[in-house]
């Protein structure tokens, strides 16, 4: 083991895996944003506008939170790997799970009411 002045290099595969995970979260956020735009543009005029507007706003909020959360997680994982510490918890996954639950309920209610 090397001293603190010269830490052991991280295996590049772990750094690249961390980057791929970050990019996957960003793609998910982009998909949510695209879905929000599509629902707002194509579906909202058909009926149940209030529920669909709420679903659109939840999608936009989730995209925002996932973008920030994924960057923070990427940084935290990089720091932990460089320090040889335990990796942080689940990151933005609970945000996505909770948000998708809300969107599913709103979409189901919109279908039932229209």
Biggest β-sheet strands, sense, barrel? none
How many domains? The number is: 1
Give the strand content: under 5%
Distance between the termini: 65 Å
Main structural class: mainly alpha
Shape: elongated
User: Strand-and-helix sequence, N→C?
Assistant: HHH
What's the overall average pLDDT, rounded? 87
Count of runs of 4 or more consecutive helical residues = 3
Q: How many strand units?
A: 0
Rounded radius of gyration (Å): 19 Å
- As a percent range, the share of helical residues equals over 70%
Low-confidence runs (pLDDT<50, min 5 residues)?
none
Organism: Nocardia terrae
Transmembrane segments: 22-43, 50-71, 91-113
Domain DUF202: 13-80
Protein name: DUF202 domain-containing protein
Structure, described:
The longest helix has 35 residues, at 49-83. The chain has one domain. It is built from three helices and no strands. Helix 1 (12-43) packs antiparallel against helix 2 (49-83). The chain is 77% helix and 0% strand. It has 114 residues and is mostly helical. The mean pLDDT is 87. The protein has helices at 12-43, 49-83, 93-113. The radius of gyration is 19 Å and the shape is elongated.
């Amino acid at each position: 083991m090397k001293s603190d002045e010269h830490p052991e290099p991280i295996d590049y595969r772990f750094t690249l895996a961390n980057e791929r995970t970050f990019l996957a979260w960003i793609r998910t956020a982009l998909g949510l944003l695209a879905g929000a735009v599509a629902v707002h543009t194509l579906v909202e005029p058909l009926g149940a506008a209030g529920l669909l507007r709420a679903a659109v706003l939840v999608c936009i909020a989730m995209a925002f939170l996932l973008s920030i959360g994924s960057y923070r997680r990427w940084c935290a994982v990089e720091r932990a790997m460089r320090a040889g510490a335990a990796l942080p918890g689940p990151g933005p996954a609970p945000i996505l799970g909770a948000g998708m639950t809300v969107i599913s309920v709103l979409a189901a209610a919109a279908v039932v009411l229209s």
